[in-house]
Amino acid sequence: MSVVALLGAVTGRGDDVLPPRFNVDRYSAMVEHSPFAIATAVALPAATPDFAKDLYVANVAHSPDADMVTIASSSDPDSPWTAIASSALNGRIESAPRK
User: Fold this and answer.
1) Which of 23, 30, 54, 96 meets the CB 3.0–4.6 Å disulfide criterion with 75?
2) Which distant-in-sequence residues (6+ apart) come within 8 Å of 70 by Cβ?
């Protein structure tokens, strides 16, 4: 008997459980004046020339005396540049002579 009473109570209140659906026009003002919209169009900066487009790391070496990095260019393979850092240089980085 309690099952029948429970079913009667649930079916009688089924329409009142969910709130009424809002009209879509309610949100039209928020869509037109959204606080998350971009206020002005952002102008992209002019393209700058890519100074490092042909450069790559050709060699990295670590020894007890110094750390070395060699940078080379794919457009000019005869001009590698080597940077050397060691404790004898007191934190400075020097360029190694080209051979």
Assistant:
1) 54
2) 57, 58, 59, 60, 80, 81, 82, 83
Binned at pLDDT 50, 70 and 90, residue 97 comes out as low
How many whole angstroms separate alpha carbon 71 and alpha carbon 95? Answer: 11
pLDDT above 80 for 69: yes
In the chain, where the domains are located: 55-87
Give the whole-angstrom CA distance, residue 70 versus residue 61. Answer: 9
Q: Where does residue 37 fall: left (phi above 0), alpha (psi -120 to 50 degrees), or beta otherwise?
A: beta
Q: Residue 73 in 3-state DSSP?
A: strand
Burial class of residue 16 in the structure, from the number of CB atoms within 10 Å of its CB (0-12 exposed, 13-18 middle, 19+ buried): exposed
β-pair type (81-85, 93-95): antiparallel
